[in-house]
């Protein structure tokens, strides 16, 4: 895998493979391992209070000299505090999601921070470009966790984003192996972001039960839930089935939000309750058969990618 | 585009590009035009009575000497009659969908017919392989019209199908240009099936209003409706919004089926009623900007494909 493009240049990385920031799964250990292998690791601030984020950033700096970043969901109430920690600690790469980047971009830019924003439609991509973002992550509806309302799939979304914006597009959703990486580049993306594949690594801070659930999942073992509240793709466990039933019965947004009330994400991903917890995962779970080290994930992806390139180019 | 693989060999075609069989859009005119360009045209029997299917087959034979086939939804009540017409008229390629191929495969096989079956999950793919099908079409949830319940996207589905079965896999869903064709091959498919792109051609028998709606559609202008009845992806018009509302209110299967009662497909696709009709289209509609001739569609796809190959292989 020899790729030099705007994404490898922007983040100063060897491979345009980005580890998605995930709640309860992507702390300093995962992020630094990914960066050490030549990808871009992201600390997922979504499940961290400002002080904990600071600790993870410091540990990550100790663990690697290579570039890493922070993923920041912009809907957080303590967003200003989190941004202050990021700037204070000298972070130079931020991936923002779930919100409007325009509100915060000046603060990031004046601190010399590269900003990539996660989008799920052409409209959001144009907004991110106009706001001054350096790159976008185009996330298809097959991705795990919280998802854009548009429900556009990776194969349909990526070429439309590439045609719409001038900044580099990173593809996310449904990608877990080297074939997926090459397919994303063929569609015009200049990098990929993978969540589920890295959630199921040894270095992920998620619970073993949750990692095992990803490794065991087949092609149709994830489902989109909470359309009326906060759309998310999760593994079809008893909690998910309960949520689907509530939606089918026409329950209100308030009733659905109540279902979520007991910190379902932490319960499922961090504490390993596979009955009552919310097990966020993408459809790529069906491609993931074992829990590997980050080193082995990279070796596998690179070898699959090289083989896929050879298949196309020998013709 | 120089591709020789099991799909081009099986159907004796120049390009592994198959035009999906579609109700009210794919008669002899479209099918013969696609076959003439070196792809595989399919007459969509879904909206044809047996006698009409016979007429279309005869006209298609007059229009081209190249291989073409028939798409047959197996849920039809007059399925035996339709199969008899197909055999009687000497058709040698059948694409089956919406049902179990095992029930009819012997009849097809003893008439020397090649059978490809449309699937939307690994489970269905394995069944089709065991039944003796010669190929499968793996259709992602981004595809237009009736859809598998599994809601698996093309980028997640195709590699899983390729890993599961030994017969060739044809990718469908979200593909409308040469980048999509190459991405599908990278994922392991040996051909693609495109519906929406060919529905919006001059040779399609659909109404101009419907074709125009496809050309105008943006990335998020289609939606999945009728989850409780007969899942379908359609353009988000007033009828579709009415159907979504009925589902959100928790209406029963019977009430939802009643909504469909007035031949919505014909009304929308063939008669061009863009308010009350059901306008079946895939997410690839966002990539389709104009109504072209089939000849121009092929020229465009081939040139895009060659450029995409060059981009990958020059590296």
Characteristics:
homodimer; 315 residues; alpha/beta; TIM Barrel; 2 domains
Describe the structure.
Two copies of one chain form a homodimer. Chain A has 315 residues and is α/β, with parallel strands linked by helices. Chain A has two domains: 6-206 and 289-310, Aldolase class I (TIM Barrel); 208-283, no CATH class. Chain A has 14 helices and eleven strands. At the A-B interface, helix 7, helix 8 and helix 14 of A face helix 7, helix 8 and helix 14 of B.
What is the topological layout?
The structure is a homodimer of 315-residue chains.
Chain A: H1 6-11, E1 17-19, H2 28-36, E2 41-44, H3 50-63, E3 68-73, H4 79-88, E4 93-97, H5 105-110, E5 114-119, H6 122-131, E6 135-139, E7 145-146, H7 154-164, E8 169-172, H8 178-186, E9 191-194, H9 196-199, H10 208-216, E10 222-225, E11 232-235, H11 238-248, H12 253-259, H13 264-270, H14 294-313
Parallel strand pairs in A: 1-9, 2-3, 3-4, 4-5, 5-6, 6-8, 8-9
Antiparallel strand pairs in A: 7-11, 10-11
Helix pairs in contact in A: 2-3, 3-4, 8-14
Q: What's the short version?
A:
The first copy, chain A, is of the alpha/beta class and 315 residues long. Chain A contains 14 helices and 11 strands.
